[in-house]
Amino acid sequence: MSHKSSSLKQLALQKFKKNFWGVFSFGFIVFVGLVSVFAYVFAPDDSQFANQMHLSIHSKKPGFKIEMLTIPSQLESNQSWLGKVFFGKKNTDTEVPISEYLIEEDLLMYKEYASDGLEGVEKTTSLSVFPNNEVGKYIKAKTFLFGTDKYGRDLLSRVLIGARISFFIGFVAVFISLLIGVFMGSVAGYFGGKVDAVIMWIINVTWSIPTLLLVIAITLALGKGFWQVFIAVGLTMWVEVARVVRGQIISAKEMQYVTAARALGFNDFRIITRHILPNIMAPVIVISAANFAGAILIESGLSFLGIGAQPPMASWGAMIKDHYNYIILGKPYLAVIPGLCIMSLVMAFMLIGNALRDALDVKN
């Protein structure tokens, strides 16, 4: 039995490897996952939430270049390197976009950048604020590959850090939905009768409420925030899992191996967890892949409505909300770039779901 199970797994793996789009989507999802975890390592703006604002260079096109003066602060952040890698740097320095500068004796004179042909403000600062008077290290040319948003923040950095929410909400939501859905579906399908009727009533009531409306209600009850959205999305996605698990268990509990397990005196919990569930996980895995995509879309919708991740936290949905009106103002990339990110990640999960469905289909 174990050898047969191993052979089926190897066969499914071989079929999956032959599916180009499935393998490509898996690689893309792994890539996005690594970017999400180490976003602050890759982001040009490694401050917390990539929230360095420069209003003088707002809404600049991709590839925009500017000289950036960093004025060191005397404050110490006392932050560990792990904190910087995973949560961003607590930036106490002041960044100033400048158009020109001049060093005379012990003073640095610079002109702040001003767009639309305006003259920037001329300012001076003492060289003593720079360690060892090395001003050159604190004036660097900076390129914004994706341009800047309406607050003058680096759009590329916001996109990279915003991937965290969209990616991790899939894992948290699917985990919660599997936890509740598999339990409810298993109990309903295995015991039947009144237990099944009660659980099916709960499922049907939950199913009848529009998903977005239910998420909004849960979010308002739990409060606005990062984890509240994760929990709210997860609590709305268990219904489909429960229905599939229930249907699979109803047919599986009549199989001979379940009858044999009962004859050997195994309790119901062991029969469900050790004998039935491992044999019905194929459709559940496929649904989980689809739920990943669904969770990303729901979170994006919530952020667009303003009840998802709250500012200054970066989120693809919130970025579209902030910039959708720029589509008709000649700067569509501010909304199109995060929109393409959502589309590509959702498409990857849908394609990997289709590939898993084909690989796990024993009839082919």
Summarize the structure.
The protein has helices at residues 2-17, 20-37, 39-42, 81-87, 155-191, 193-208, 211-222, 226-236, 238-252, 256-263, 268-276, 281-305, 316-323, 333-359; strands at 64-71, 94-104, 107-112, 122-126, 139-144.
Topology, pairings included?
Elements lengths: L1 H16 L2 H18 L1 H4 L21 E8 L9 H7 L6 E11 L2 E6 L9 E5 L12 E6 L10 H37 L1 H16 L2 H12 L3 H11 L1 H15 L3 H8 L4 H9 L4 H25 L10 H8 L9 H27 L5
Antiparallel strand pairs: 1-2, 1-5, 2-3, 3-4
Protein name: ABC transporter permease
InterPro entries: BP-dependent_transpt_permease, MetI-like, MetI-like_sf, OppC_N
Pfam families: BPD_transp_1, OppC_N
Rounded radius of gyration (Å): 27 Å
CATH topology of the largest domain, anyone?
A: MetI-like fold
Name given to the CATH architecture of the largest domain: Orthogonal Bundle
CATH class of the largest domain: Mainly Alpha
First CA to last CA: what distance?
21 Å
Helix and strand pattern:
HHHEHEEEEHHHHHHHHHH
Query: What number of domains?
Result: 2
Give the helix tally: 14
Helix content: 55-70%
In round numbers, the mean pLDDT is 87
Instruction: Write out the strand line-up for the largest beta sheet, numbering strands in chain order.
Output: 4-3-2-1-5
Overall 3D form = elongated
**Sheet with most strands:** 5 strands, antiparallel
Tally of DSSP β-strands = 5
> What structural class is derived from the secondary structure elements?
alpha+beta
Could you give me the name of the CATH homologous superfamily of the largest domain? MetI-like
Question: Spans of 5+ residues with little confidence (pLDDT < 50)?
Answer: none
Tell me the strand percentage band. Answer: 5-15%
